[in-house]
Design goal:
- The protein is of the alpha/beta class.
- The two termini are 61 Å apart.
């Protein structure tokens, strides 16, 4: 896509989300311009009436003016309402697309940015796009209409005044061009500082326990103050350069406005214009100078928003995680590595490895910390793509398998499970269509039934942010219950019992390893003898090699 067209692509693409309101806005804006500019004719008629009218005509004039005011109110409110509702639909659609594209980014791409940066895309940056881009562009339409209609009316009223207006209007429109580079630079820097502040603030809030334990609140407070001041200074600089551009444009507008009286007085004295025409010209000047000032300010706002807009375009048109289309049958043979290579920088974790994890068998993988055990599980989960080779399910590359169907076959119990700020029920079934009885059965298997029964609201107890009132072991049991509820054909366990006491961990492992026909691939530092006895294979990962070892 042509770089120069990208911002306008975003504008026109999302305006289609509110076609009805857009049509109404496009229809009412010209009418609103005519009604506003009609005030000049109304004022001229009032002066003309004062100079030559009769007292008995007062009622007719008052009635006409009342109708004009009511019409102006209705049309003006209609334009603003259409624009506000249109912007609501546009921003809601853009926000949803940004959210979906972030959530469907390939895992390595997603990990390139801090989650606070994505949060900024959905909050503060979205407001920049709303106010400085969409609102500014939509506002240009009626302002340009008012300028054109008022200028034509001015030329019709007096060619001399029209030429004067066009000359200064051209000068006024040069102002944004002069300030363009600075406005763009300041806007870009503000967006960058704003994202940096969001990252720091989110990290500080998440570090509450660590920062309290190690008493680093002084450092964090100082860092926050620095980031906050830097962000506000960047915002001020961006707004100040916009204000400077606006005020220069406004000053030219004042010269234009006052010049109308000087030239108008001369034309009146020479008999070319009457007093009512001068009044009308003065009012028309308001609808020429004011739109020009607004247009100048809007152009400055647009320049300052271009970086954020360009980033959104890249985000909503960028690559997404492949979904696959192949619908697999029942798991029949193996989940396999086929000459898989994966590295982080110069550190090779898998070097052209091939291995078949056969259906129904239980595997234990061990190795030193950092050797790549968790990475191997991420490859099997389709979170990471191999840099060479392929992961296959019954001979089909998993990247080609429908992602939803693959998720139904394979489940993972992580070492640090994520829990939603919701009830125990929803955290176990993850908003899927499981009954409360099925959830309770899974909780019982995971050893949580008694604990849940003691809670006042039972399975409907709200656990809060990150389940702060649950212990590490209870959180891990919830993750185990999730997996058992899903009834997968393949279960990955990434240190999934590490937060449990040895007896409980052994009990859970025995439960998992004793499920018939379930393929289990477990990563573990601690090898419980009874669990090892139940394993079919033990694998050692080291130096990029995955090798079988005899079971002790």
């Amino acid at each position: 896509m042509n770089e120069s067209k990208r911002p306008l692509w975003l504008f026109f693409t999302y305006l289609r989300q509110g076609k009805g309101h857009l049509a109404l806005y496009l229809l009412l804006a010209p009418l609103n311009a005519l009604v506003e500019i009609g005030l000049a004719a109304a004022m001229a008629s009032a002066v003309d009436y004062a100079m030559s009218g009769q007292v008995q005509d007062m009622g007719r004039y008052v009635g006409l003016y009342a109708l004009y005011v009511l019409l102006g109110f209705g049309v003006g409110y209609g334009v603003k309402r259409a624009r506000i509702l249109l912007l609501g639909r546009v921003i809601a659609a853009l926000k949803q697309d940004v959210y979906e594209h972030v959530m469907y980014l390939p895992y390595p791409k997603f990990r390139e940015n801090n989650s606070a940066e994505y949060l900024a895309e959905l909050t503060s940056n979205m407001e920049i796009v709303r106010e400085s881009y969409f609102t500014a562009l939509l506002r240009l339409y009626p302002e340009v209409l008012k300028f054109v209609v008022a200028t034509v009316a001015m030329i019709w009223l007096s060619p001399w005044l029209g030429m004067y207006v066009l000359l200064l209007a051209g000068l006024q429109m040069v102002v944004p061009v002069i300030f363009s580079k600075k406005i763009t630079e300041k806007g870009r820097y503000y967006a960058q500082c704003n994202e940096g502040y969001m990252v720091t603030a989110k990290e500080d809030l998440l570090s509450y326990e660590t920062s309290t334990l190690y008493q680093i609140l002084g450092f964090l407070t100082g860092r926050h103050r620095k980031k906050s001041v830097e962000t506000e200074r960047a915002r001020s600089d961006s707004k100040l350069i916009n204000a400077m551009s606006y005020e220069v444009s406004f000053a030219i507008g004042n010269v234009m406005y006052l010049g109308i009286y000087v030239i108008g007085a001369f034309l009146t004295l020479t008999g070319h214009l009457g007093v009512p025409a001068i009044i009308a010209a003065a009012q028309l000047m308001v609808y020429i100078a004011s739109p020009l000032t607004t247009i100048s300010g809007d152009i400055a706002e647009l320049k300052s928003a271009l970086k954020v807009v360009g980033h959104y375009v890249q985000l909503v048109t960028g690559p997404q995680r492949p979904q696959g289309g192949v619908q697999p049958g029942p798991f029949a043979h193996s989940l396999s590595l086929d000459h898989v290579t994966f590295s982080y920088g110069d550190r090779t974790l898998l070097s052209g490895q091939s291995y078949a994890f056969e259906k129904g068998k239980k595997y234990i993988i061990h190795g030193e910390s950092g050797c790549g055990k968790s990475t191997l599980l991420k490859l099997l989960q389709r979170l990471l793509p191999p840099q060479a080779g392929a992961v296959t399910l019954d001979g089909v590359e998993v990247e080609q398998v429908d992602r939803t169907a693959y998720a139904a076959k394979l489940c993972c119990i992580p070492q640090e499970p994520f829990l939603f700020d919701d009830t125990i029920l929803e955290n176990v079934r993850l908003y899927r269509d499981y009954t409360q009885e099925q959830v309770m059965e899974a909780l019982d298997k995971a050893g949580l039934a008694q604990m849940v029964a003691r809670l006042p609201q039972g399975v409907h107890t709200h656990i809060g942010e990150n389940a702060s009132f649950l212990s590490g072991g209870e959180k891990q049991r919830l993750a185990i219950a999730r997996a058992l509820l899903s009834n997968p054909e393949i279960l990955l366990v990434d240190e999934g019992t590490s937060h449990l006491d040895p007896a409980t961990a052994q009990e859970i492992e025995t439960l998992i390893f004793s499920i018939p026909h379930l393929t289990v691939i477990a990563v573990s530092h601690i090898l419980h003898p009874s669990t090892v006895e139940m394993a079919h294979k033990m694998l050692h990962l080291h130096g990029g090699m995955l090798e079988e070892e005899p079971i002790p």
